């Protein structure tokens, strides 16, 4: 098998917004409690943050973290999560049938971000399920106003003298989903989101606001939801959200490996809907997308840790990812990059323990899941400008998506002129030869070809064997007379760097 494409710096998709490499921390299961926060753990710092996890999050290269939900936020009162920890109430979290202690809240989250370093910014989700305009305004005032008002002074009294300066706000979470506490029709939500957005802009016109799009392309309301919501909110929001989770069903691995085809169509359809609304409104403004939840998630598998209701930090959604899942995550990243011109933010859901690239054991170690690697490599090397990649590739038939190319690829040119090719071979059985013609790029050598692939498609990293799956170096990849030649192993994620 042989696939090819041509790269030319004159043909670009657009610059990569670093916020494409975001993640998500929800009060769900053990993402917060015993995930990022575990007072008493041997690696915990004075604030109870696990320094072993902080180190892995830094290595992962996360640029944005969405917080505090997810479904959790639609039953959440933000006031519960601030002030002296001992006085914070314990409450039912009806979304996940758990008990929330609020030992970790807004101030602790901001401290966590500060410890990650200046390059990770918050993205707060507002509760528009069971609350409304006033509570959203109050939270923004508490978080962002410098001082001299009741709410901002309350923040100062709570120990946070400096305003948090949170720029990005999600106007609710998955408001189209019948599972969402207080879910709404598109008309109801559109009006509420527009009113909330206008009120928040009265506080600060510079906020970046995200309207809830669909929680999935397969929902019956998809596209009509976006059209209705955006008709109300178009002028006052910056982004519309998309959520997508993929899993293998009925042993159909070839379709699973082609999940990025679904993501690609989903993105195109949401953009078409946005632009349709722009046309109707005769608006020159163009919205961008916030793909603020995406990942592989085995929703149809029975939970390996059945738990009783109303536990604190139960083991929920602790998917253990295989090398196959990592290849799919890599190809989803490729699709996000291929749409860099219209994607402003994307968040891998979630960060720790809950469908996450990082796992921890209470009182024990933290380790990288297989999916950690494609994300970390994309975040590290996928910065700059995405080049327009038009692939010529052999194809194969899949049950869900019909005929799909075996090669899925993109390329990013760094500001220093270096180039990184990200490529997935979807063929489970045969290697794929790749030839990339490089025009006008002034590249002289292959710096590294790294691959994630394994003879065992089920190979995974666990507490007992945390380093079973790691990327390996591939030899034999060469640059010869302006053409890059590489061999992509069967079912593999590849990062080829050139300088
Ligand atoms: O990420 C897990 C859940 O998936 C989130 O809480 C929700 O927004 C989505 O349905």
Tell me what the structure shows:
It catalyses: Hydrolysis of terminal non-reducing alpha-L-arabinofuranoside residues in alpha-L-arabinosides. Residues 292-492 form the Alpha-L-arabinofuranosidase C-terminal domain. Keywords: Carbohydrate metabolism, Glycosidase, Hydrolase. Homohexamer; trimer of dimers. Its EC number is 3.2.1.55. With 499 residues, this protein is α/β, with parallel strands linked by helices. It has 2 domains: 2-9 and 388-498, Immunoglobulin-like; 17-381, TIM Barrel. The protein has 10 helices and 26 strands. It has helices at 51-60, 106-116, 133-144, 150-157, 186-203, 224-233, 253-257, 259-281, 323-338, 372-381; strands at residues 2-7, 12-15, 22-24, 64-67, 91-93, 98-100, 121-125, 168-171, 208-211, 239-246, 288-296, 311-312, 343-349, 358-360, 366-368, 385-387, 395-398, 402-405, 407-413, 419-425, 432-438, 446-452, 472-473, 478-480, 483-488, 492-498. Strands 3-4-7-8-9-10-11-13 form an 8-stranded parallel β-barrel, surrounded by 5 helices. Helix 3 (133-144) packs parallel to helix 5 and helix 5 runs parallel beside helix 6. It is globular. The mean pLDDT is 97. It binds alpha-L-arabinofuranose (AHR). Alpha-L-arabinofuranose binds at residues 26, 28, 69-71, 173-174, 215, 293, 349-350.
